[in-house]
């Protein structure tokens, strides 16, 4: 075929692959005719509803309280010039997770979905992805900081990490660009049309999930595993604490890293499965929809759990919590030992 004709066919194929008007949720589109299909949908929606209620009732309040306490502690330490590089990075990590927790309120309508325009859904997706990307890359920067603290002989890297604000700024700029790219890949047409909205829009192009998996999980996880591999395999220099002592000194970072990897692995596997269905031009089954909803809620649970781990495992936060508990105990004991004035007793004979 002539070049112009080949180009025309290529454009038509791309337009066809990017035309997502056909896609919908299985629970919203299939004409259920048999009793078994109807019962499967009802059971799936009941499970999603229970997961949502447990998340909203237990994880959201706990995560938000822990996040607010961490913010207060870090800001207080910064004003008193007690802040360290690690605290600054964990502060950014906390803010990213708080953003994700607030955006997770979109699951309140489950098993139904938030109904907004494509444009509004893309805006929500942008902020969600910013929190999603930034939390993972800031955690990697934190791991790198701890690694260089242990292996101080790497002079070049140590000098580069000496400016934490500059490093954090570069990471946030990078994640902003990734989030903007994802907002574009959510689709550039039909902004005025209403749709059922998830924070990872169902109507997004297949490239949306591919970019999210590659830059939001694949690359960060490889960097994360590389940090762990160097930490375990390379012998510490003379005078440095043992590996066990090093991990016990920063348990919050390492516990959060493992938790994040497990939860995001489950979530990204489901993201890839959804991409496969899109490429096959299939809407999937109600079971696929159920597991994707569960994976999304598990991702939000991880954000809440990470903040709780930092509050009770990171030394500056743990010390402040212990101080508050001790102060409350002292006040309780003081109130219990208040002397109650005794009233004079009168004897039957009339004498006192």
Give a quick precis of the structure.
The chain is built from 12 helices and 2 strands.
Helical proportion, percent range: over 70%
| Biggest sheet features | 2 strands, antiparallel
Strand content range: under 5%
Mean pLDDT level: 85
Distance N terminus to C terminus? 120 Å
Q: What is the approximate shape?
A: globular
Q: Which structural class do the helices and strands define?
A: mainly alpha
CATH architecture: Up-down Bundle
CATH class assignment? Mainly Alpha
Structural domain count: 1
Give me the CATH superfamily: Rhodopsin 7-helix transmembrane proteins
Output the number of helix runs.
Answer: 12
Rg from C-alpha positions? 27 Å
Order of helices and strands: HHHHEHHHEHHHHH
Number of strands: 2
How are the strands of the biggest sheet laid out side by side?
1-2
Residue ranges: pLDDT <50 for 5 or more in a row? Answer: none
CATH topology: Rhopdopsin 7-helix transmembrane proteins
Can you walk me through this structure?
The chain has one domain (44-321): Rhopdopsin 7-helix transmembrane proteins, CATH 1.20.1070. Helices cover 74% and strands 2% of the residues. The chain has helices at 3-18, 26-29, 35-79, 85-103, 118-150, 155-160, 164-185, 206-233, 243-249, 251-279, 286-313, 315-336, and strands at 114-117, 194-197. Strands 1-2 form a two-stranded antiparallel ribbon. The radius of gyration is 27 Å and the shape is globular.
């Amino acid at each position: 075929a002539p070049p112009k004709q080949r180009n025309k066919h290529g454009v038509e194929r791309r337009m066809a692959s990017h035309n997502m008007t056909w896609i919908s949720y299985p629970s919203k589109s299939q004409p259920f005719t048999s009793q078994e299909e109807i019962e499967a949908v009802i059971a799936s929606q009941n499970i999603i509803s229970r997961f949502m209620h447990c998340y909203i009732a237990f994880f959201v309040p706990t995560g938000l309280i822990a996040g607010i306490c961490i913010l207060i502690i870090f800001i207080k330490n910064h004003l008193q010039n007690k802040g360290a590089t690690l605290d600054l990075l964990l502060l950014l990590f906390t803010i990213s997770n708080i953003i994700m927790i607030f955006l997770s309120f979109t699951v309140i309508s489950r098993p139904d979905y938030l109904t907004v325009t494509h444009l509004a859904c893309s805006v929500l997706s942008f902020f969600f992805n910013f929190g999603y990307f930034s939390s993972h890359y800031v955690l990697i920067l934190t791991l790198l900081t701890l690694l260089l603290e242990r292996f101080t002989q790497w002079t070049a890297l140590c000098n580069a990490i000496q400016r934490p604000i500059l490093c954090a700024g570069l990471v946030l700029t990078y994640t902003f660009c990734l989030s903007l790219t994802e907002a574009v890949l959510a689709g550039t047409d039909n902004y005025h049309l209403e749709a059922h909205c998830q924070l990872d829009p169902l109507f997004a192009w297949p490239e949306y999930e591919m970019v999210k998996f590659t830059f939001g999980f694949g690359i960060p996880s490889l960097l994360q595993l590389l940090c762990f591999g160097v930490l375990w395999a390379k012998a510490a220099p003379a005078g440095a604490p043992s590996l066990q002592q090093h991990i016990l000194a920063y348990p919050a970072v390492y516990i959060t890293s493992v938790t994040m990897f497990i939860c995001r692995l489950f979530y990204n596997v489901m993201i890839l499965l959804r991409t496969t269905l899109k490429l096959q031009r299939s809407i999937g089954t109600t079971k696929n929809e159920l597991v994707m909803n569960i994976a999304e809620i598990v991702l939000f649970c991880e954000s809440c759990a990470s903040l709780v781990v930092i509050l009770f495992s990171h030394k500056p936060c743990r010390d402040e919590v212990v101080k508050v508990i001790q102060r409350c105990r002292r006040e309780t004991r003081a109130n219990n030992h208040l002397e109650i004035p005794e009233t004079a007793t009168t004897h039957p004979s009339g004498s006192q």
